[in-house]
Amino acid sequence: MKKHPFPLIIALSLLISTGCQAGFLDDLSRELGIPSVPSAQQTGLDDATIVKGLKEALSTGTDRAVKAVAQTDGYFGNQAIKILMPEKIRNVTDLLGKMGYQQQVDDVVLGMNRAAEKAAPMATEYFVGALKEMTFTDARNILQGGNTAATDYFKGKTGAKIQAAFKPVIADSMNQVGATRAYKGMMANYGALPFVTGTSFDIDNYVTTRAVDGLFTMLGEEEKKIRTDPAARATELLRKVFGK
């Protein structure tokens, strides 16, 4: 005669009723044919569920954002984050364009964006680090915050670190793609024009700042999708956490 696993049923019921290992035990109960007992996930979101759901969402969102900007034309082809000539030297580039140096100006713009695209993948490790540090309080604040609350959290945790990591990579990339040479040539041509005074500008710092800003802009867009578009919630956990 087949023995019924009463001791196991009792043990499972006690564990489920206290909410311990709820997801795992619910699945195991179903496999054994034991009626499930309402858990924290069924009656409301507990801290563990919120943190897990947010980390899954943010892992997905950051991955998409980084890949979007790291590809060719990720910055250059996206008008929302394309790095343009800084306002401080816009009069310089406008004048040079009229004097026949527009190609040189265009080369600098393209080079700035290519440098940003090359640096972008470095952001991933900092996002991963911020996810590991996320607390229950952080998670609840993010869930209850605005459409870019998670992006703001990431910016506060990683913005300065990413800025510092990006700058040497962007400076090197600007050299490799010829943007630095084109920029220096452009400014030399401007300085050679009559009736103008020389001007200086830290182009590497400017590109770095705009690259980081563009990355967080794209991350904010990914977060908004997950919060507002049910189709962007690819898993049951995301639907549970963001469907509230």
TrEMBL record:
Keywords attached to this entry: Signal
Top-rank taxon, per record: Bacteria
Pfam family, one: DUF4197
Keyword hit for Signal: yes
InterPro entries assigned: DUF4197 (IPR025245)
Signal peptide: 1-22
Name of the protein this chain belongs to: DUF4197 family protein
Organism: Geomobilimonas luticola
